[in-house]
Design goal:
three-stranded antiparallel beta sheet; alpha+beta; 10 strands; single chain
Length: 171
């Protein structure tokens, strides 16, 4: 969907899904080993999907970067560009103390390393509405499957407690 407001100049061309809402969400974990893994397509739903790389600890909360249908490498490059250009870590506008600035610079260096496939990492998409997708190049004949998809577990204990409480009140 594309929005272009001539009045205020706001523009957005994020991907919005029109799928049904599932009972359980899902978490997709993919072990990225090389450049081929970075070429996989990713559909990151804008409002519901978070993206995490535990090895370098960025966590893109749902709503961050909007919806995208893009290669993994490209979304990592966009994250790098957004952070390196918009976070004021140097100069007069920097509010960071030296230690925080050094941590931030180390983080950017690590993000660039994973973007360039210089070190392996895990990419985790966490989507409670199950509207996101990560292309799977699995080849089960060769035993190559570095992607794991987990459905959320429905916790019925609270529902059972609520039902029991309702029954107790009714009697």
């Amino acid at each position: 969907m594309s929005i272009n407001c001539e009045s205020c100049g706001y523009r957005d061309n994020g991907v919005k899904t029109g799928a049904a809402i599932f009972e359980k969400g899902k978490r997709i974990t993919l072990r990225m080993e090389d450049r081929e893994d970075l070429s996989r397509d990713i559909l990151k739903e804008s409002e519901t999907c978070g993206l995490t790389i535990p090895e370098i600890d960025p966590a893109l909360q749902p709503g961050t970067l909007g919806g995208r249908f893009i290669a993994v490498e490209s979304i990592l490059e966009q994250v790098y560009e957004e952070l390196s250009e918009k976070v004021h870590a140097v100069g007069d506008s920097s509010m960071m103390v030296v230690e925080d600035r050094q941590k931030f610079q180390r983080f950017l260096k690590q993000l660039k390393e994973v973007t360039n496939a210089e070190k392996p990492f895990a990419l985790i998409l966490d989507d409670p509405l199950m509207n996101s997708y990560l292309q799977n190049f699995k080849n089960e004949e060769l035993g190559l499957n570095n992607m794991k998809v987990e459905n959320y577990i429905v916790d019925n204990t609270n529902e059972a407690k609520e039902e029991k409480s309702i029954e107790e009140v009714a009697s």
